[in-house]
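Ligand-bound model needed. adenosine-5'-diphosphate.
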Amino acid sequence: MRDIYKTKEQLLDELETSRQRIAELDALETELKESNKLFRMLFFSSPIGMYIVQDGYFQIVGHQFARIAGYDEDELIGKPSLTFVFPEDRNAVRENAVKMLKGESFSGYEYRIITKLAVIKWVMETVTPVSYQGRRATLGNLMDITERRQAEETLKQMVGEIGRSNTELEQFAYVVSHDLQEPLRMVSSYTQLLARRYHDKLDTSANDFINYAVDGAERMRVLLNNLLDYSRLGTHGKPFKLTDFEDVFNQAMTNLKVAIEESEALVTHDYLPTLIVDEGQLVQLFQNLIGNAVKFCNQESPRIHVSAETKSGVWVFSVRDNGIGIDPQHAQRIFEIFKRLHTREEYSGTGMGLAICKKIVERHGGNIWIYSQPGEGSTFYFTIPVTGGKSP
Ligand code: ADP
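Prediction:
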């Protein structure tokens, strides 16, 4: 038979164990109280809007959430959560809630809410399944992103407007340059006829006047052709294809053969990559840059070097010369149409070459800029994405 009487020592032992248990429980209770306090602090003073929804109704609502929605916390408790969601976004929010309850977690989805004062706001929300009072519930954290969305919207509209006005400008330039060509051809041919037929038959001033007119008409023809080329860059470009830049360089060199030979220019280059581009436009780009390097030289014969290197996702090309250089204060201006730093008497040209280069580079998703000092030569840099551009 089991001895039912406990010794004094045994009773003291049990008493000690019970005391320890009570101390452990006390510690647990303190921990629980602290966690509760922490939870309430977090929930109610967090700068993120927090709430708990169960069976579609708000159970707990944080201060920031109520502030975003424009209510007092108490007004929201017990209200159906979906009534705050903008009607067009309700289905998406409901579907997300169902998926979340099936175990998928959602972070950062964006939708609109309607506040107490009927203002529509954009929020970004993360929802997590939780247990509340022993049953399944949803913990939501959200942020008011209305300002960001409005800024994005304004930016989108601005980009759209800029795109539209660019297209209009291109169409305008195209129509003007195209339609002016016909009357210009008439002026040109009749002034040339005058020059041929009446040269030396009138006085010397008349000869000069006729020559000025012929010269002016010719200049206008070149300007209009350049403008027409410029306006066609965006719309008449060829689809992008894999292109060896060695070929691009060689074609540009062939086109510049006469100018290079006349000026005894030495043009060298490093390894050039193969990228997806509009080959014809890239030849034009190289031709304009190397052509300028040949043209804007001082007394010594031009030394031009073309190189390319990869840097964080782009190929950076450079065309370096030992020419006259430019004052850095003009570094932006020279890429605008018809902008020149010299008279025609000093250096020939229309001021369209670099504007065309800029447009070609931008069509390929890159940038173009110059590093130069007067008398110390210039280096033109431009970038093309490593993945090549995408045909627009
Ligand atoms: P253009 O060559 O017809 O004058 P561009 O648009 O090609 O027109 O160039 C604009 C201006 O930029 C030039 O008039 C010249 O002043 C300056 N420029 C361009 N390339 C160079 C260069 N390699 N060295 C010095 N100046 C240059």
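The longest helix spans residues 146-198.
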